[in-house]
Structures are given as structure tokens and as C-alpha cells.
Amino acid sequence: MTTLQDWSPAEGGCSCGTIRYRLENSPLVVHCCHCTFCQRESTSAFALNAMIETKFVKLLSTEKPVAISIPTASGAKQHMHHCPKCQMVVWSNYGDAGDVVRYVRVGTLDDPSTTPPNIHIFTSTKQPWVILGDDLPVKEEYYQREEIWSKASMERREKLIDDLGLT
């Protein structure tokens, strides 16, 4: 698994190449989400989302992703950012938090193997044929951040909160 110490910038983009981006820091955490909304949106059994501060996601292309808002199970909106040409979603934001943190779709990275998940979440609705091992934490719903996030990620979160003046 890639650690904070050996992280190097990772690039990715949409299928047609119109949208290109670079992650300039490691993600705070990577979720393997099995909720029914992620299953529907990914057209698969789960979605892999790398949670990272927006300031560490550098847009390399001149075209910008287009955002649409869709409902979530919590009732908060998910703002999905997709390529204006091929429509592939490259990242999203949740709720009314604005564009402070992005959930980058790991599958849009040029090498998704560099960004493995840290945890399986919302497994209460996972597909029955998905067999989970004991190599990662498994939560039926969400989790307590302090249980999963690294110390460095928690420190980055605190800095983000301070920078936003939310303390």
C-alpha cells in the first residue's frame, strides 16, 4: 500500500482526455463504498473514492469539469463533476461544504493501483456475491474518523478546519 512517505503525484482524467488532473498529495482516506447510490452511479458493486483537499487537485486541462447535483441517501446533494464531452465523472463534492474536499474517482487515475482503499463502508447494502477479506476494516455504515484515518490525515483535516475558520 502506498504510504504518505512514498506518495508521488498521480495523474488522471476522463476517457476522452479532455479533463486531466494531478493529485499533488496523498488522499486523506480512500473509501470503497458499497451504498446503493454508489452502486448505481458507478454501474458496479461499489465505488472507490479518494478523499483529498481540493487545493491538492490541480486541473491540468484547459476545459473544466461540469457539475451536476444529485440526491444522496442522507438527503444532502452530491455535486458530481464530469467531462463536458465524454460525461465521465472525475470527482464529486458532498453536501453544502462547497468545493473544499473532493472525492476523486480512483478509477480515473492513470494508475489506480497506487491508491488502494483504506476501508469498506456501507457494507450493509453490498452485493451478496462480493466477498470481503479481513485485510481492510469493514463497516456496515459509516465510521468514526479517528478509528481509520492516519495521524497525518487527521492533522491535515484540522489544518483545513482552521484555514476555513471553523474552529
Describe what is shown at a glance.
The protein has 167 residues and is an alpha+beta fold. Helix content is 14%, strand content 29%. The chain has a single domain, classed as glutathione-dependent formaldehyde- activating enzyme (gfa), CATH 3.90.1590.
What would you note in describing this structure?
By secondary structure, the chain is of the alpha+beta class. The protein starts with 9 loop residues before the first strand and ends with a helix. The chain is built from 3 helices and 10 strands; from the N terminus they run βββαβββββββαα. The chain has a single domain (4-128, 135-163), classed as glutathione-dependent formaldehyde- activating enzyme (gfa), CATH 3.90.1590.10. The protein has helices spanning 36-42, 145-148, 151-163, and strands at residues 10-13, 20-23, 29-33, 47-53, 57-59, 66-71, 77-82, 89-94, 101-105, 119-121.
